[in-house]
Structures are given as structure tokens and as C-alpha cells.
Amino acid sequence: MFKLGVVHLGLRNLNFTTKTATNVKCYTVSSVKMDKEILEKAKKLAGYKAVDDNLKSGLRVGIGSGSTIKYVVDRIKELGLDVICVPTSFQSTQLIVNAGLTLSDLSRTPELDITIDGADEVDSQLNCIKGGGACQLQEKIVAAASKRLVIVADFTKDSQAFGQQWKRGIPIEVVPMAYVPVMNKLSSMSLKPVLRMAVNKAGPVVSDNANFIIDAQFESISNVAELATKIKMIPGVVETGLFVNMASRAYFGQQDGTVKERTI
Ligand SMILES: O=C(CO)[C@H](O)[C@H](O)COP(=O)(O)O
């Protein structure tokens, strides 16, 4: 008898069918490999095109976080663009430094021409859910200091409405001593909060800013801006992963080798 199974690949689920326990492993490995290759190609397409279309030497650029941003940094390096880079996390600082690009910060470069960043889900209005990598606080600060925010993502992030693609909820950064009352408040708002736990460490994920991350799962969101404000108003919440009316353009790498653009 055929069974339906699910493989967890990072933040994504892959469906697969299998006949017996013995061929599960075989089918799973090839599915994961295939999926990973397709996604990496899509991320690279988006990252490269965003750089080609939007960057030139002399610009002050916010560098987002996540796996897609790697391709943005690769392309900047490949083209030899002389840009000033402001990171959004420890990971993004490493990418900039390792690529030999000019590293700055918001103290020295408080106004940026553009930020390019990834996203976990992008809706039809270019509102984003971010923070799958727990970097949303610095990402939002850097994006807010930029004239434009451009999103780079693979096709799995492209949605009409939140929750169609991203099932892990809204990442919310909280001060550690406040996490229980914050979770209680979120529950009273019909959200399902889960404290994000670390993988290779006992206990919770600790952000670059020494805070905890709560993932607030939801059924549907009718008014994103209102929800973002309500969550932000809870004492102890430092920042939410809802980026409302911030992005002006998104590039989605497709499976067929093209890049879909959305601009508002
Ligand atoms: O918000 C983020 C990190 O906090 C990332 O930009 C987001 O999770 C997308 O990551 P990836 O490019 O790996 O899909």
C-alpha cells in the first residue's frame, strides 16, 4: 500500500510516496537533493537579477540575512561593485567580510540607498513575513534606514495571502524575561505561540540581540498592519517579522530559469 509522507527540509515540506519501509530512504534522499538543487538555482537567479537591476558602484547597501542573500553578495563581488555594505546580522557581516566588500554600520552610514533582503513569505502587496533565521530586528532597522527595500526569494515564498506558503507563523523577538506573558497575550489574540527551540544547543534560540524568538502561528490575517501594531504594543516584544508596506519590489526565481518580478 502507498503511504503519504513528509520530509522536513529546513523550513519546507516535501511530499513523497513510498511502497515499503526499505525504499523510503532511497526516495527521500533523491527528492530532497532534487528539491534543494531547484531551490538553490531559483535563489541564485533572484539574487543575481536583483543586483544587476538595482546596484551600481557608489551606493550604500543594506545586506539582508538568510540563504538567498549569499547570492546577492556573490554577484556584488563578481561584478566588482564598489558599494558600502551595512549588515543585518552576524551571518550577513560574515558574508560581507568574507567577500572582501566594504563593511559599515548604521553609526557611520545611517542612510542607505537600498536594502536587498530575503523573505519567508511575500503577499500580493509585497508585505513580508521575515525572521525565519531570527534576524528580523536588525533587518527591519536597516530596511527602515533605506530608501528602498528589494526582496529576493525563490518561488516557494510567493503568495497572494499570508499562510498560503509559510506555515511556521510570525517570528516575534521578545525580551527573555517577558516570554511567558507575551505568549499568553498572543494566545488571547487567537494566535498559537511557540517558543523557538535551538537545534545544537539546549534551550531556546537566542537572537543576535540576546533575545528569544516566539513563532506565532495563525489561521488567517485579515488586516496585516493592524496585527503588526497590536503585537508590537505588547510589553516585552522587541520586533515582529511582519514587514508591512516596506518593500517596493520582489524578485522570485522560478523553476524554469526565469525570474518573476513584482513591483508596487
Ligand atoms: O528573514 C530572514 C532571516 O531572519 C531571511 O531573510 C528569511 O528567513 C529568508 O531566508 P532564506 O533566504 O534562507 O529563505
Automatic annotation (TrEMBL):
Its EC number is 5.3.1.6. InterPro entries: NagB/RpiA_transferase-like (IPR037171), Ribose5P_isomerase_type_A (IPR004788). One of its GO terms (molecular function) is ribose-5-phosphate isomerase activity. Keywords: Isomerase. It comes from the Eukaryota. It holds the Pfam family Rib_5-P_isom_A. GO terms for biological process: D-ribose metabolic process; pentose-phosphate shunt, non-oxidative branch. The keyword Isomerase applies. Pathway: Carbohydrate degradation; pentose phosphate pathway; D-ribose 5-phosphate from D-ribulose 5-phosphate (non-oxidative stage): step 1/1. GO terms for cellular component: cytoplasm. Gene3D superfamilies: 3.30.70.260, 3.40.50.1360. It catalyses: aldehydo-D-ribose 5-phosphate = D-ribulose 5-phosphate. The keyword Isomerase applies. Belongs to the ribose 5-phosphate isomerase family. This is ribose-5-phosphate isomerase. It comes from Heterostelium pallidum (strain ATCC 26659 / Pp 5 / PN500). The gene is rpiA.
